[in-house]
Amino acid sequence: MRKALGFAQRAFRIREVPIGCVIVHNLSGKIIGAGYNLRNTKKNTLYHAEIIAINQASRNLGDWRLEDCTMYVTIEPCPMCAGAILQARIPRLVYGAANPKAGAVGSVVNLLNNSAFNHQTDVKSGVLEADCAAMMQDFFRDFRRQDT
Q: Which of 20, 68, 92, 96 is the most buried (most CB within 10 A)?
């Protein structure tokens, strides 16, 4: 999670919403995908940290299935990212802080543990929660100050 926080810090420095993500290949213990939000930079809604990390991990493994991987992300994934986690068959998600306005892993809805889907993901939340939440709070506090 500390690596994911480092990627979130990169987003923070370029005035992107500070969410960072890493994907670890469980068999090797190596990071095979990483990303941070770039929606404003790329002017594209698809550039979420999780989507960037999934793309990179899939390239590195040469497969769209990330069945032997764990994703670490600083903030609870949104519906788009939760859907991508399901589609990539990622078996384990670890996240830091909840996303009460758009979280799709329990805060608003729970897409990852819905038995109607053919795949579910084991979820652990609250890892370095205070650090992850503080970065988001600092970002939006600074954002609001600059907006006035």
A: 20
